Amino acid sequence: MTTIKDTPEEWEIRATDTPFVGNKTSVRTDDVVMPDGSVVHRDYQVHPGSVAVLALDEQDRVLLINQYRHPVRHKLWEIPAGLLDVPGENPLHAAQRELYEEAHVKAEDWRVLTDVYTTPGGCDEAVRIFLARGVSEAEGERFAVEHEETDMAYARVPVDELVRRILAGDVHNNCLVVGVLSLVAARGGDGLDALRPADAEWPARPFTS
């Protein structure tokens, strides 16, 4: 019987180059040896990794933000998310920071909802999506936003409504879709309290405590 579990593996790389280096990401070209011995070019985006937060309130509503995304020329409804700016950063700390900075919200209970590679055919980005419960307004002044974030709108939407919107093709953000459907699957399975703890290991982006 085949075990359905992703496994780490790395094929031989004969040469590598980084033709573009940006502010947060870069593009790399590797010459990779295929199983038949041939060597092919593989171009991909090198990404530091991200975290996202599905914040669920007591009325079973998910906190959403609406933000312009220039590459797809859309304003997308999303859950709070952000980059792992510091190598080895604890993803929970990053998620708590993003929830505060983007929504001025804090949470008492944190779990790992799921881990995903967003586009493994062309980018090495890994995202950890957290479930945050016991949410409330954070103290102090709001974080000073800039660029696209200055135009953000906010909403709290019931889980059932979001499922309908997802299946109707009305919302498209990867972390929102994966997060909401994972939440529903967890509830229908072993329950939310059976989710992994917030400090669970993450081999895709190892972190220190």
From TrEMBL:
<feature type="domain" description="Nudix hydrolase">
    <location>
        <begin position="45"/>
        <end position="179"/>
    </location>
</feature>
<dbReference type="GO" id="GO:0005829">
    <property type="term" value="C:cytosol"/>
</dbReference>
<dbReference type="Pfam" id="PF00293">
    <property type="entry name" value="NUDIX"/>
</dbReference>
<dbReference type="InterPro" id="IPR000086">
    <property type="entry name" value="NUDIX_hydrolase_dom"/>
</dbReference>
<protein>
    <submittedName>
        <fullName>ADP-ribose pyrophosphatase</fullName>
        <ecNumber>3.6.1.13</ecNumber>
    </submittedName>
</protein>
<dbReference type="InterPro" id="IPR015797">
    <property type="entry name" value="NUDIX_hydrolase-like_dom_sf"/>
</dbReference>
<keyword id="KW-0378">Hydrolase</keyword>
<dbReference type="GO" id="GO:0006753">
    <property type="term" value="P:nucleoside phosphate metabolic process"/>
</dbReference>
<dbReference type="GO" id="GO:0019693">
    <property type="term" value="P:ribose phosphate metabolic process"/>
</dbReference>
<dbReference type="GO" id="GO:0047631">
    <property type="term" value="F:ADP-ribose diphosphatase activity"/>
</dbReference>
